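Thread amino acids onto this structure.
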């Protein structure tokens, strides 16, 4: 009987630890330790045990309040997303300053005599991002990954990194912002275009997009192809539309328009809508504000919901399970089983 009782306690304690970690991540281990310590303390005496019903209700309310706070607050992500939007604004502003000096946007890349891409547009606009020293250190006589230029990879301007993605990959020199290149787009490969060459209108044409988990070095003369973008696997991010603990929210992606504005769109737009926004002369009429509001409803996060319920129930069972007294005897005098 003593073994069954102890096994029940161990099982409930294991459920508390598992559910706490499932609900709150690695920090849940500390929460579980605190909960189990409080439960053990409350059950030390008969008087304390009689009050555990009240304590249990208070603890239950506290856990529910904590879960509620987590459901509406995610402190880092809103700031990361705002920083991401600001980075895109700075990049597109630099592109327009480049256009002011040269009469056209920068080309997607500069090629060598054989037509092989050598230098990216991200390098060309460095002086307009207050990175003149980095621009002057870049050697245009060798490829972007040549012996001298390779040393500059770790000096990546912060404007080319989205803080949300950067927090996941540990600061590697990869860019989160790319052009969508191709003959139908605002980036006609090595040919620079003018605003006047966008018949669909600069306010209705995407010129830069986010890309999640990019493998593109910020100096590399490589971007997203038109085909990659419209098939839905390219234009992407890690930004949730809202902050949800009990639900999975729709992901949104930031894009920059040719007129300099930054717009947030739901990830996974239909390919025909993306194609209309990426082409410069398709003749389509797309209401980008309408597209921005076309988001799918959130879905319940069943894992977190179940974990919180399991945590609450297991804590209450530990607190309120009947106490079993050990018969008084020579070796058990004054000892109570937990």
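Threaded sequence (338 positions):
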């Amino acid at each position: 009987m003593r073994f069954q009782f102890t096994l029940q306690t161990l099982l409930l304690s294991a459920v508390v630890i598992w559910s706490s970690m499932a609900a709150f991540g690695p920090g849940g281990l500390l929460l579980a330790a605190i909960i189990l310590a409080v439960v053990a303390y409350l059950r030390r005496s008969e008087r304390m045990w009689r009050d555990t019903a009240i304590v249990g209700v208070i603890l239950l309310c506290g856990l529910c309040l904590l879960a509620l706070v987590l459901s509406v607050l995610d402190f880092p992500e809103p700031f990361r997303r705002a920083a991401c939007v600001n980075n895109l604004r700075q990049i597109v502003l630099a592109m327009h300053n480049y256009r002011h000096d040269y009469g056209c946007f920068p080309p997607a890349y500069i090629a060598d005599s054989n037509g092989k891409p050598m230098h990216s547009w991200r390098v060309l606009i460095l002086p307009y991002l207050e990175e003149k020293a980095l621009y002057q250190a870049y050697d245009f006589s060798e490829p972007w990954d040549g012996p001298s230029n390779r040393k500059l990879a770790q000096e990546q301007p912060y404007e080319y990194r989205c803080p949300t993605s950067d927090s996941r990959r540990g600061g590697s020199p990869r860019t989160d912002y790319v052009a969508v290149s191709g003959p139908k787009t605002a980036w006609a490969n090595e040919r620079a275009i003018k605003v006047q060459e966008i018949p669909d209108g600069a306010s209705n044409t995407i010129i830069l997009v986010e890309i999640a988990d990019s493998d593109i070095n910020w100096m590399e003369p490589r971007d997203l192809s038109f085909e990659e973008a419209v098939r839905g696997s390219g234009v992407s991010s890690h930004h949730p539309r809202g902050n949800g603990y009990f639900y999975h929210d729709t992901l949104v992606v930031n894009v920059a328009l040719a007129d300099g504005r930054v717009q947030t769109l739901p990830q996974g737009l239909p390919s025909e809508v993306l194609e209309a926004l990426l082409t410069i002369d398709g003749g389509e009429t797309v209401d980008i504000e309408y597209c921005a509001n076309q988001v799918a409803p959130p879905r319940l996060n069943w894992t977190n919901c179940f974990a919180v319920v399991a945590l609450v129930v297991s804590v209450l069972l530990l607190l309120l399970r009947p106490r079993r007294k050990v018969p008084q005897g020579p070796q058990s005098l004054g000892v109570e089983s937990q």
